[in-house]
Design goal:
globular, four-stranded antiparallel beta sheet, 293 residues, alpha/beta
Length: 293
């Protein structure tokens, strides 16, 4: 699905951002890319988004050779990806509903489909009751969830998350990564997330690719990242915070605002499709001793 084969990148100013980097991300994987500032993480993302072309080596995404992709095909290719940025990039004069719907309108999706998909994504991310709000009326965590809904609404095979927790507090960071993990599990969406927050990486225990000075130092498979972080008490606090927020939304209560689907005017709609959702509490209960899922 994503493959870097011997990729190197040297910028015009002489900076060697990537040095013979090779890795492959298969369909349905959740992969963290970690490393210090200037390690080459952003160059990897820019290369996947076709903002940069490798100096040498080949990058393949969804069967497309990005080295050979013509410029006129780039916009369509990017629309096939879900992209979540650190700085949210919401349109300030649009409501939550319209920010998410915008991703569909630019691809000429019919109105009927928009009225179905947007409420579904807002409900999935606990934002249905915020549909008529503007970005300035939302917290940082809520704005990032809107950005995630916008990335998800096109049902992409791949979501690229570039430091999505960089501008929100630690408790909300946990919530965002938990949502990404749930999307990965429920929908089979491939997730590639760049981060410098090692405590989150260790807690969620996914595959980890470590980059430093443009070199791929390690590629650690899921279940082997224990060494990165040992602050169990701190992460348990994040988990407890998330649990208290979940209790505020009872997904079995069809009258709660967060479980209702709304149209662009805020009117309630009847859902004609299931909202797939795992039971996080059951997932935690089945986790190994000393670790929550």
């Amino acid at each position: 699905m994503i493959e870097f084969a011997g990729v190197s990148k040297r910028y015009k100013n002489g900076t060697q951002a990537l040095k013979n980097v090779s890795f492959k991300v298969d369909k349905g994987e959740f992969v963290f890319i970690v490393g210090p500032s200037g390690a080459g993480k952003s160059t990897i993302i820019k290369t996947i988004l076709r903002e940069e072309i490798p100096t040498s080596g080949v990058v393949t995404v969804n069967g497309y050779n990005l080295n050979k992709m013509k410029r006129r095909h780039i916009p369509k290719y990017r629309r096939s990806l879900g992209i979540v940025f650190q700085d949210f990039r919401l349109i300030p004069n649009m409501t939550v509903y319209d920010n998410v719907a915008f991703a569909l309108r630019v691809t000429n999706v019919v109105k009927k489909e928009i009225r179905s998909r947007v409420p579904y994504c807002l409900k999935l991310l606990g934002l249905a009751h915020k549909a008529k709000c503007y970005p300035e009326e939302l917290s940082g965590g809520e704005q990032q969830r809107v950005a995630l809904a916008r990335a998800l609404v096109n049902n992409p095979a791949i979501i690229i998350a570039d430091e999505p927790t960089g501008n929100i507090d630690p408790e909300l960071s946990f919530e965002i990564v938990d949502l990404l993990s749930e999307i990965n599990l429920q929908c089979g969406t491939t997730i590639l997330m760049v981060t410098h927050e090692h405590e989150l990486v260790s807690y969620f225990n996914k595959r980890v690719i470590t980059i430093d000075d443009g070199v791929l130092l390690a590629d650690t498979r899921a279940g082997s990242a224990e060494y990165l972080f040992t602050g169990v008490d701190q992460m348990n606090g994040y988990s407890q915070t998330l649990s208290s927020r979940e209790k505020a939304i009872d997904f079995s209560d069809k009258n709660h605002p967060a479980t209702q689907l709304l149209d662009s005017r805020g009117n309630a709609l009847e859902a004609d499709f299931p909202v797939r959702r795992t039971d996080r509490n059951a997932k935690r209960d089945s986790a190994p001793v000393g670790r929550k899922a």
